[in-house]
From TrEMBL:
Substrates-to-products reaction catalysed: hydrogencarbonate + H(+) = CO2 + H2O
Pfam name, any one: CsoSCA_N
Carboxysome Shell Carbonic Anhydrase C-terminal domain residues: 409-523
Keyword Zinc attributed: yes
EC class: lyase
Domain Carboxysome Shell Carbonic Anhydrase N-terminal as annotated: residue spans: 64-155
Superkingdom, taxonomy of origin: Bacteria
Species of the source: Thioalkalivibrio halophilus
Keywords associated with the record: Bacterial microcompartment, Carbon dioxide fixation, Carboxysome, Lyase, Metal-binding, Zinc
GO cellular component terms, A-Z: carboxysome
Listed GO MF terms: carbonate dehydratase activity; metal ion binding
Domain Carboxysome Shell Carbonic Anhydrase catalytic: 170-407
Protein name: Carboxysome shell carbonic anhydrase
Names of required cofactors: Zn(2+)
Length: 524
């Protein structure tokens, strides 16, 4: 395998750029010394550095020495079970549709739904079928929502291991000097498996909140940072305030290696450079905000990760000794996988370590100022190793490359994350407290993704509005219920052209904030 150290030519166009301005400006990195006579022209992302990929296509086969095979089998059973349930919905509804003029239709339809999907459909819709026609849009919405409720509620049964798994992860984070790991990926459904599949981090140990284009809410994160500090100060959880551990904020942008100009991040017009740059700027702004508000920016670390949504490979942008990152300094796990797949376990682990060191000392574009702290290096190397397992998974079960390169989401989840829904491309996530602040994310989901995906075919857009309350706080449940209804009303109003035709429907669910609590659906 040939690994290119330096670009041979000066591409005028950043990879994935739609507009492709000639003479694109140099990266807004803090350390980008001039290289060569044409240093004003930035090389395309992915063309710099020892571990930049040479090609992004095949060459990845299953059986990597560092892959967690049993973990992969477990995840595959989970993913398959999940998809199978939902893939039955349309065939079952088709069959029900064809039965609508038969005798005993209602009972036959119910028993079919119960047998094939494990749910009951709304009686009234079936009963009313003789008046006009069967309202299949309603049935599609209701069927999706009931399957959703069922899968979420079943998720926790018999999974006592999840708490122990989270505890050991938190201990490991502390070992890396982090008392909190907070990740903001893009809302894109193809990143839905980020925590559980792509990075292999336990559900309950990591905070994940998604925003269109990974442009997370800085004010909200500063509030969360404050809350964590207060917990440390008052309760010594997970460390006392005098321990110099840090808050780690991770932003995850994404790109498509197979179709970079069309299947990248919708919020950034499929331009990888723009997506990465915007996320990096957001991370800097967050750090700055904490520093300006509390004079303690040093207690915040940031990390930028790029995800190739076609293969689940990641680019980890390694911070330097001054915690700064560059779009041009990263380790690409796909290249690492290919380079190490023929090695034994020990050599492969060493190669991961070497790859990080080489990136730290990379010259030319993206040169940094020294290495980050030891904990960060440990954290990055674990993330890369975890991701090698995921690449093995994609190689084994998806031929190294997902068949559904584009959007294939089945619903939009609005409000707060549903940690049980971590299957790639299953849902579009719009994290928000009010529609006012979340309108942008929601518009991308409805107008750019689901109008094409569902509405053009006459299928409605299922929207789950999900919020958590705190049962220890008086009145919390009532307030959260009211918020849930408010958001639902605003969605129906905002997309009136769809709601009037029954082409969008909301399902409201609330639940206690403890992990593992059951959903409480609200009556419309
Ligand atoms: Zn995106």
């Amino acid at each position: 395998m040939v690994v290119r150290r330096r670009r041979k030519t000066s591409p005028l166009r950043p990879r994935g750029s739609v507009t492709g301005r000639p003479g694109a400006s140099a990266p807004r990195s803090d350390h980008t010394p001039a290289v060569g006579p044409d240093s004003s022209v930035a090389p395309a992302l992915g063309e710099v550095g020892r571990y930049a990929p040479v090609d992004t296509g095949g060459g990845v086969r299953p059986g990597h020495p560092l892959a967690d095979e049993r973990g992969n089998e477990r995840l595959h059973a989970f993913e398959q079970g999940f998809r199978d349930r939902f893939s039955e919905l349309v065939p079952v509804l088709r069959e029900i549709h064809s039965l609508q003029h038969e005798k005993g239709f209602s009972e036959r339809a119910q028993s079919l739904a119960e047998r094939q999907l494990g749910i009951r459909l709304p009686e009234q819709v079936l009963e009313d079928a003789w008046i006009n026609h069967l309202d299949t849009r309603r049935l599609y919405l209701e069927g999706s929502f009931r399957l959703f409720d069922r899968l979420v509620n079943e998720y926790w049964s018999g999974r006592d291991d999840l708490a122990a798994e989270a505890e050991s992860a938190i201990a490991w984070f502390l070992d890396c000097d982090f008392h909190e790991v907070d990740i903001s990926p893009c809302s894109d459904g193809r990143l839905l498996g980020l925590r559980r599949f792509i990075l292999r981090l336990p559900d309950m140990a990591v905070r994940v909140k998604s925003y269109a284009g990974a442009l997370f809410d800085i004010e909200e994160d500063v509030r969360h940072w404050t809350k964590r500090e207060l917990l440390r100060f008052r309760e010594g959880r997970p460390t006392t305030a005098d321990v110099p551990s840090r808050y780690l904020k991770v932003a995850a942008y994404h790109y498509s290696s197979a179709d970079p100009n069309h299947q990248g991040c919708t919020a950034h017009a499929s331009c990888e450079r723009e997506a990465a740059d915007a996320a990096l700027r957001q991370l800097r702004a967050f750090r700055q905000a904490v520093e300006n508000t509390y004079c303690c920016g040093a207690s915040v670390d940031t990390l930028l990760i790029g995800v190739d949504t076609d293969t689940d490979a990641i680019k980890v942008h390694v911070p330097d000794g001054e915690t700064r990152m560059s779009l041009y300094r990263f380790v690409d796990s796909a290249a690492l996988y290919r380079e190490t797949q023929g090695m034994n376990e020990q050599d492969a682990s060493l190669a991961v370590y070497r790859a990080i060191q080489d990136t730290v000392h990379q010259q030319g574009w993206g040169t940094g100022n020294g290495a980050p702290h030891e904990g960060m290096l440990r954290f990055i190397s674990r993330l890369l190793m975890n991701n090698l397992s995921q690449l093995d998974y994609v190689a084994r079960y998806h031929g190294g490359h997902y068949a559904d390169v584009g959007h294939r989401e089945r619903m939009i989840i609005v409000g707060q994350e549903v940690e049980e829904m971590q299957v790639r491309n299953f849902a579009y996530i719009a994290h928000l407290d009010t529609m006012e602040e979340g309108a942008e994310s929601m518009d991308v989901g409805v107008n750019k993704v689901f109008r094409k995906l569902n509405v053009e075919r006459g299928l409605p857009v299922p929207v789950v509005v999900h919020f958590r309350y705190d049962r220890k706080v008086p009145g919390s449940r009532e307030r959260v219920e009211a918020r849930c209804r408010r958001v639902r009303d605003e969605i129906m109003k905002r997309y009136r052209d769809l709601s009037e035709k029954g082409l969008i429907g909301c399902h409201m669910v609330i639940r206690d904030k403890r992990s593992g609590s059951q959903l409480e659906p609200l009556e419309a």
